[in-house]
Write a structure and sequence with these properties.
Layout (H helix, E strand, L loop, with lengths): L11 E7 L9 E9 L12 E5 L7 H12 L4 E6 L18 H4 L5 H14 L16 E6 L2 H17 L18 H10 L4 H30 L21 H57 L9
Antiparallel strand pairs: 1-2, 2-3, 3-5, 4-5
Length: 313
């Protein structure tokens, strides 16, 4: 089947030559789809990023560094972020209510709090039990290049690859950068699974400390949300008190209502100021019109006096 330069969804197809292995001694061609990165939420690096689709399952940063080096030379590839790439830390989300804290809580404590949060995140890191991560089938990634010119060069190089049929080789010149797969990979996993007891216990304790803090914040937030008046200004009164955090649905609903109320208030305020601006413009126009009429009367008077003017001799 002939390779095409572009598909209907504007992806350029980058063929990569996968060398044979002992289990499958045949060379294969894997097609990675490439286009300019255009996420729903723009970032500062979008102009020098590429979105990759259908990457190989054994993809790593050194693998793609080698591919892009073959395409456009060294120094263009900067980094790659794989789909669902997360840290091996324990997730803290007691009831999802803390998702709205960013909208309702002011920035506080400055750099000291940021450093404390960074130390907390570091303490939550669990020991690594895999020497190398595998990607799920047909997953995606975002490649960050040196500049926008590098993006153009890569896309042009992909076009040339289709004409020359000289595809970049997968995994060439990796040396010892990437741990080997197979039995050695499994043996390494079994060894790493015997984690240090003290290190694991320390991470678990840090998790519960952070979890309790997040839960307390969620409780305080849920109480405040229940005391928020509705659109008519009424507050729902419930019997007793609830100490548990708000549920996910309640938190999301409260978040939506707060956003709608804030938008409505902002719109009303903007309309009020627009009314003031309109009145101000009308007053300024009236002043300009009166000045124009006065100037026109002066010009007409000067025209009438033109024939009677006699210069001094």
């Amino acid at each position: 089947m002939a390779h095409t330069e572009e598909t209907s969804d504007q992806f350029a197809i980058l063929p990569i030559e996968i060398p044979g292995t002992s289990s499958y001694p045949e060379t294969a061609i894997h097609e990675v789809r490439v286009r300019r990165n255009a996420p729903k939420i723009p970032t500062a690096n979008d102009s020098r990023s590429l979105f990759l689709k259908n990457i190989p399952a054994d993809s790593t940063g050194p693998h793609f560094r080698g591919v892009f080096t073959e395409l456009v030379g060294a120094g263009r590839f900067e980094s790659i972020t794989f789909e669902d790439e997360t840290k091996t830390s324990l997730t803290i989300d007691p009831a999802a209510a803390t998702k709205v804290t960013a909208l309702t809580r002011k920035r506080k404590h400055g750099e000291a709090e940021e450093e404390e949060r960074a130390r907390e995140e570091q303490a939550l890191q669990l020991p690594q039990i895999w020497s190398r991560r595998l990607q799920r089938s047909s997953s995606t990634a975002v490649v960050l290049l040196a500049d926008e010119k590098s993006v153009q060069q890569v896309l042009k190089a992909i076009t040339k690859v289709h004409k020359s049929k000289k595809y970049p080789s997968w995994g060439s010149n990796l040396a010892d950068e990437v741990p080997a797969l197979g039995s050695a990979w499994i043996a390494s996993h079994l060894q790493l699974s015997r984690v240090d007891k003290q290190a694991t216990q320390k991470a678990v304790h840090a998790f519960f400390n952070a979890f309790n803090r997040k839960e307390k914040e969620a409780v305080e937030l849920s109480k405040r949300l229940r005391n928020e008046p509705d659109d008519d200004g009424f507050v729902t009164v419930v019997r007793g008190g609830r100490v548990a955090p708000a549920s996910r649905n309640e938190a999301e609903e409260a978040k939506r209502k707060m956003y709608e109320r804030d938008t409505k208030k902002k719109s009303e305020t903007q309309d009020f100021y627009r009314f003031q601006l309109r009145e101000k413009r009308k007053a300024e126009q009236a002043v300009l019109l009166s000045r124009f009429e006065e100037d026109r009367r002066k010009v007409n008077a000067m025209r009438q006096q033109r024939g009677k003017f006699r210069p001094e001799t």
